[in-house]
Design goal:
Elements: E1 8-13, E2 33-34, E3 37-38, H1 39-49, E4 54-59, H2 64-69, H3 74-80, H4 90-98, E5 100-105, H5 112-118, H6 120-123, E6 128-131, E7 135-137, H7 147-158, E8 161-167, E9 177-185, E10 188-196, E11 207-215, H8 219-225, H9 236-246, E12 249-253, E13 258-260, H10 264-277
Parallel strand pairs: 1-4, 1-6, 4-5, 8-12
Antiparallel strand pairs: 2-3, 6-11, 7-13, 8-11, 9-10, 10-12
Helix pairs in contact: 5-8, 8-9
Length: 282
């Protein structure tokens, strides 16, 4: 078995965020704050926690604020140097000092699969993670590591593509990729099939893929062969379905809570949850 560790994480972040208009007309949805920290920073911190320090962003037009956020702001730091406000930059400084960042542009919005394929030059021939910042995953109640670290642990054991899943209401399956498979350990499934956004009557289960993946580098070959699917886009679910048929894909019900911050309701729910937890206070 390979001893290559997962050290790179890809953040597809080229979408328009239309559900948050007009707020996202000039600001990336990934920069919307949960209390006092943008969504994208929570994701990068989760990647660092999982042992990844090489962070790649797939961006679209109007997303320069993400690159600026993960850079030093000399004017701001000069203004607050030595004041009580300096402590508010502690977390982002730690992220910047611990990471290497690469930015690429997805010129056309052709789906999540296409966005991941766009990142191939950043990844090369090694396993990598994908985080969708819209899906905010909290620290589990037992204070153990967040979702991505749980996936890395399984990758070290199984050496194959790993996806995070959770049970959703049967009426909501048309918003997700849905898996079916055999449970090989508690909460861990050997995937036999995947369907992208099935109607409830066509969904094999209610186990939905959420925005955490560990992918092996051969996924790029599968993506190149994947035809546009649901919504006329190249879907990562369709590529992984073929991987599951020819090789192996593992799905895991991760510990922790996931907030769909791509929706206004989920964003407000996450904000309330993090505010009430008090973790944001310095």
């Amino acid at each position: 078995m390979s001893d290559i560790k997962v050290r790179k994480c890809l953040f597809p972040a080229a979408g328009y965020g239309t559900r948050f208009l007009p707020a996202t007309k000039a600001m990336p949805k990934e920069m919307l704050p949960i209390v006092n920290k943008p969504l994208i920073q929570y994701g990068v911190e989760e990647a660092l926690e999982a042992g990844m320090s090489q962070i790649g962003f797939i961006l679209g037009r109007g997303k320069r604020a993400i690159a600026d956020h993960f850079d030093i702001s000399y004017e701001l730091e000069h203004q607050i140097l030595g004041t009580s406000k300096e402590k508010y930059l502690t977390d982002i400084r730690k992220v910047i000092d611990s990471s290497q960042f690469i930015f690429m542009r997805q010129r056309e919005m052709l789906g999540l699969g296409h966005a991941i394929l766009t990142g191939e030059p950043m990844i090369g021939n090694e396993p990598f993670a994908v985080i969708l910042a819209d899906d905010l995953c909290s620290v589990p109640d037992d204070k153990s590591d967040r979702a991505l670290s749980q996936l890395v642990e399984l990758y070290d054991k199984y050496q194959c593509c790993i996806v995070a899943i959770e049970e959703v209401d049967a009426a909501d399956t048309a918003s997700y990729g849905i898996i079916s498979g055999e449970e090989v350990a508690e909460g861990i499934y050997d995937v036999s099939d995947m369907v992208e956004k099935p109607q409830p009557e066509d969904a094999p289960t209610n186990m939905a893929i959420i925005g955490r993946y560990i992918l092996t580098p051969d996924i790029f070959d599968y993506l190149r062969e994947t035809k546009p699917g649901a919504g006329g886009e190249i879907q990562i679910t369709d590529a992984l379905r073929q991987v599951a048929k020819e090789k192996r894909v593992i799905a895991v019900k991760f510990k922790g809570r996931r907030f769909d911050c791509g929706s206004v309701e989920g964003f407000v729910e996450a904000t309330n949850y993090y505010f009430e937890s008090g973790d944001w206070k310095l």
